[in-house]
Amino acid sequence: MTIDDHRLQTHARTLARAFAELEQAKHATGQIRDQRTMRPGGRLGPQTPGHDKPVELCIELETRLYDFVCDAKRYIQPERMLPKSWRPMLDWIIFNAWPLATLDVADELDTELTYQTHRINRLLYPAAPRIDRPEPWQTARQVVTLCAAHGHRVTTAQLRQLAHRGIIEAQSSGGRNLYRPSQVLTHMKGTTNA
User: Fold this and answer.
1) Quick one: 118 and 36 in the same domain?
2) Helix axes 52-73, 106-124, angle to 10 degrees
3) pLDDT tens-place string over residues 86-144
4) Which of 96, 113, 115, 116 could form a disulfide with 11 if both were Cys (CB 3.0 to 4.6 A apart)?
5) pLDDT tier for residue 154 given thresholds of 50, 70 and 90
6) Which pLDDT score, from 0 to 100, does residue 35 have?
7) Taking a C-beta distance cutoff of 8 angstroms, is the pair 188, 152 a contact?
8) 73: CB partners within 8 A, 6+ apart
9) Within this chain, do residues 112 and 19 fall inside the same structural domain, yes or no?
10) 3-state SS of the chain?
11) Domain count, the chain
12) Using CA atoms, how far apart are residues 61 and 119, in angstroms rounded to an integer?
């Protein structure tokens, strides 16, 4: 399959826009401290500055793109040194799209541009979780730990009492009671707000 220069330019421009959004995500402010999950006892846990995943993805993709550009620029005259940064590399690809489209590696370069755009979009805009899957049942110990992480104190005896009253659902499996954490958290939030 041959790639025309317009398609190569279009994919390079699309990737440049995706990289620009990734740059914004690297420096975006995180969650408000009051909204973070609490440790048991109501203390806020530590938080690292910045966002690790966008930074790591940017480094990985720039390295891959640099390898492709270094291979391709051997055949393009005049040769020019390029920094290992996405913006000048993509500008170089857009400017030299016609000579690049004539090379044997044009298909691979186009595939790489599409792949990188897909990786960035998958990080920035993750797919919504499946709605049709039911929430898993958890043991009382797991539910108590989860509630404590959200700042609510509940015991296994209280969980049994809530299930007995029909406020939350319970299911027994292997001699252990299982509960749905979302029901318990909803009830706990409703009682603390009242």
Assistant:
1) yes
2) 170
3) 999 999 999 999 999 998 889 999 999 999 999 999 998 887 777 777 888 999 999 99
4) 113
5) very high
6) 44
7) yes
8) 79, 80, 82, 92
9) yes
10) CCCCHHHHHHHHHHHHHHHHHHHHHHHCCCCCHHHCCECCCCCECCCCCCCHHHHHHHHHHHHHHHHHHHHHHCCCCCCCCCCCCHHHHHHHHHHCHHHHHCCCCHHHHHHHHHHHHHHHHHHHCCCCCCCCCCCCCEEHHHHHHHHHHCCCCCCHHHHHHHHHCCCCCEEEECCEEEECHHHHHHHHHHHHHC
11) 2
12) 9
Beta bridge partners of 44: 38
Q: Which residue(s) pair with 176 in the sheet?
A: 173
Q: Which residues contact residue 140 at a Cβ distance below 8 angstroms, ignoring those fewer than 6 apart?
A: 156, 159, 160, 176, 177, 179
Range with top average pLDDT, 38-42, 78-82, 113-117: 113-117
> Same domain, yes or no, for 119 and 147?
no
Listed residues 124, 147, 173: the one ending a domain: 124
* Separation between Cα atoms, residue 107 and residue 8, nearest integer Å: 9
Would residue 24 count as lying in a domain?
yes
Query: 118 and 145: one domain?
Result: no
Within a domain: residue 131?
Answer: no
- Give me 16's structure tokens: 């440049």
Question: Do both 118 and 150 map to the same domain?
Answer: no
What CA–CA distance (Å, rounded) separates 182 from 134? 11
